[in-house]
């Protein structure tokens, strides 16, 4: 979620409209797609399959790519585009790469007309709903890409070079893989080591220590936490793994599966009450409910707050502010332990694929779109991405010989510490509107602004989850 700047994953009716992921419009655009123009007759002819061209790309065909212009920018994709043209020189001048922060608004007319791009980085606030895309048969199965030989080692399939769980994230209950998550994001509580040192403190591994540190900071005029109140679905980046740590990963699985009363689990209540205590004791930066992701990150980077829930794209997205304090020493912390009865150990963290790429079913040059992804998953492109945007990729490894910036080095260390204790909630992939508009804006944002108690937030979220489960127009997924 390349930042999903996402995530830009970011008033209620106004916000929902801005997100571009309200259920009805999402369904209408895809319904229109089903009846729009385009078809197999518009696809370019395949090229000749060979060792150098395992996907049988038409070497003289054009390629149309649309990138989400968020925290990762688009330079890494343009660099991969140059490698594509080097492999297929006849396509020089025919490869178009454009970027936008408004994915759905930009692509809706093209989907309606049956002439979508060949490759889309479907991220950001206007991210198209994946569940709907899959249900409406709007995506190309990426299995040919996954089974193709990797660029670096022809004896290895692309799927065998990816981090664990990346392929599964792109699947929706079947063997087909509809999405390739390019970035690999570590979510958690981000902070400056030097700012903690000013308080003679280290990252608090228990919640009691977290509250004590926030109290100490408050006396110095510094807030403990901030968050993007306009886009409160950032809160789950640290809240969801906190729930799993307290009650076990099974709690998140029940939530993902929309099971009855899943949100009424004691672990959810305990986690919500802990976060609400941050608000109740005045440990949240004043004005946070009115901040967007960039404003909250700026305040945090300027030292006005110690902690912010975020993803590993924050190092790149906040680079200019962080650079003003050369001793910032960015780091990420896993959720603090609530008590000794927590079901999972300290170090449990959320990490998963981010920056989701899709090849539309009606793409004219689907093979070219998949080939560009294959190139992006080479060590050369992966290292270029890492150096440019301070984020890992889904290529397993790829960091050899690189000096990682502080935040990324911390994220890598957090992954190593977590070991097998890495969680990956799927709610934000399967039910975008539920996660962002209803749970995020409609409940968590209200709770952290003090307009709703934890019990009220849980009741409302459970109602939202039940309504989604009972809505026959929404395709359901299980894990």
UniProtKB/TrEMBL annotation:
InterPro entries: Bact_solute-bd_prot1, Chitin_NgcE, SBP, TAT_signal. Its main location: other. It comes from the Bacteria. It is found in: Cell envelope. NCBIfam families: chitin_NgcE. PANTHER family: ARABINOSE-BINDING PROTEIN-RELATED, SN-GLYCEROL-3-PHOSPHATE-BINDING PERIPLASMIC PROTEIN UGPB. Belongs to the bacterial solute-binding protein 1 family. This is Carbohydrate ABC transporter, N-acetylglucosamine/diacetylchitobiose-binding protein.
């Amino acid at each position: 979620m390349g930042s999903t700047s996402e995530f830009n994953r970011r008033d209620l009716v106004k916000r929902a409209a801005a997100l571009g992921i309200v259920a009805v419009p999402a369904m209408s655009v895809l319904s229109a797609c089903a009846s729009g123009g385009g078809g197999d007759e518009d696809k370019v002819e395949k090229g000749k399959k060979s060792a150098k061209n395992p996907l049988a790309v038409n070497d003289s065909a054009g390629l149309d790519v649309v990138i989400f212009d968020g925290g990762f920018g688009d330079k890494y994709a343009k660099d991969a585009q140059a490698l594509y043209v080097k492999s297929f020189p006849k396509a020089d001048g025919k490869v178009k790469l454009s970027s936008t922060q408004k994915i759905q608004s930009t692509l809706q007319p093209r989907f309606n007309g049956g002439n979508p791009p060949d490759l889309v980085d479907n991220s950001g606030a206007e991210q198209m709903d994946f569940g709907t895309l899959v249900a409406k048969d709007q995506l190309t199965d990426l299995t040919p890409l996954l089974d193709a030989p990797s660029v670096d080692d022809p004896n290895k399939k692309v799927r065998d070079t990816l981090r664990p769980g990346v392929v599964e994230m792109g699947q929706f209950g079947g063997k087909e893989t509809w999405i390739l998550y390019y970035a690999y994001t570590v979510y958690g509580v981000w902070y400056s080591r030097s700012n903690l040192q000013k308080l003679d403190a280290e990252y608090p591994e228990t919640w009691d220590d977290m509250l004590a540190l926030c109290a100490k900071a408050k006396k110095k005029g510094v807030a403990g936490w901030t968050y993007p109140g306009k886009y409160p679905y950032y809160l789950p980046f640290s809240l969801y793994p906190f729930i799993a740590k307290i009650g076990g990963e099974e709690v998140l699985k029940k939530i993902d599966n929309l099971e009855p009363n899943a949100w009424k689990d004691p672990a959810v209540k305990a986690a919500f009450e802990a976060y609400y205590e941050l608000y109740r004791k005045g440990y949240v930066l004043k004005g946070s409910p009115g901040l967007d992701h960039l404003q909250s990150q700026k305040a945090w980077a300027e030292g006005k707050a110690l902690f912010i829930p975020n993803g590993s794209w924050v190092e790149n997205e906040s680079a200019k502010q962080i650079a003003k304090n050369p001793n910032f020493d960015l780091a990420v912390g896993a959720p603090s332990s609530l008590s000794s009865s927590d079901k999972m150990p300290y170090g449990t963290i959320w990490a998963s694929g981010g920056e989701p790429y899709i090849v539309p079913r009606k793409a004219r040059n689907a093979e070219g779109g998949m080939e560009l992804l294959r190139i992006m998953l080479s060590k050369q492109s992966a290292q270029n991405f890492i150096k440019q945007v301070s984020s890992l990729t889904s290529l397993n490894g790829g960091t050899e010989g690189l000096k990682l910036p502080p935040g990324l080095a911390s994220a890598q260390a957090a992954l190593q510490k977590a070991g097998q204790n890495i969680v990956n909630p799927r709610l934000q992939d399967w039910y975008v509107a539920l996660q962002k508009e209803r749970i995020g804006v409609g409940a968590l944002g209200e709770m952290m602004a003090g307009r709703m108690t934890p019990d009220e937030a849980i009741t409302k979220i459970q109602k939202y989850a039940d309504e989604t489960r009972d809505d026959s127009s929404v395709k359901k997924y299980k894990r």
